Amino acid sequence: MRASKGDKLVQHGRVVGQHDHVSEVVEVLGQEGNPPYRVRFEDGHEAIMSPGPDCQVKHRDEQQQ
């Protein structure tokens, strides 16, 4: 998984009825776009994440389509 600043990180819900959590990558802490990432959630809080298999990166160029 590789991401760049400005990409969206989508963490899919793990159980029925749980919504996806979307955050924006504000800093890439790993080398060459690899995790961990500093992300900002829609409510404004930030966290350091090393995404698992339930996450998907939506690159900036994909978001504009």
Tell the overall outline. Answer: globular
Structural class, judged by helices and strands? mainly beta
The number of helical segments is 1
Helix content: under 10%
* Binned strand content: 35-45%
**The biggest beta sheet, please?**
5 strands, antiparallel
> First CA to last CA: what distance?
21 Å
Helix and strand succession?
EEEEEH
- What value does the average pLDDT take? 90
Estimate nothing, just give the exact number of structural domains: 1
* Stretches with pLDDT under 50, minimum 5 residues: none
Number of strands: 5
Placed side by side, the strands forming the largest sheet appear as 4-3-2-1-5
Please tell me how large the radius of gyration is. 11 Å
Region (Disordered): 46-65
Biased composition (Basic and acidic residues): 56-65
Protein name: DUF1918 domain-containing protein
Pfam family, one: DUF1918
Q: Can you describe this structure?
A:
Residues 1-57 form the DUF1918 domain. It is a single chain. This protein has 65 residues and is mainly beta. It has one domain. The protein is built from one helix and five strands, in the order E-E-E-E-E-H. It has one helix at residues 60-63; strands at residues 8-11, 21-28, 37-41, 46-49, 55-58. It has a five-stranded antiparallel sheet. The longest helix has 4 residues, at 60-63. The protein is globular, with a radius of gyration of 11 Å.
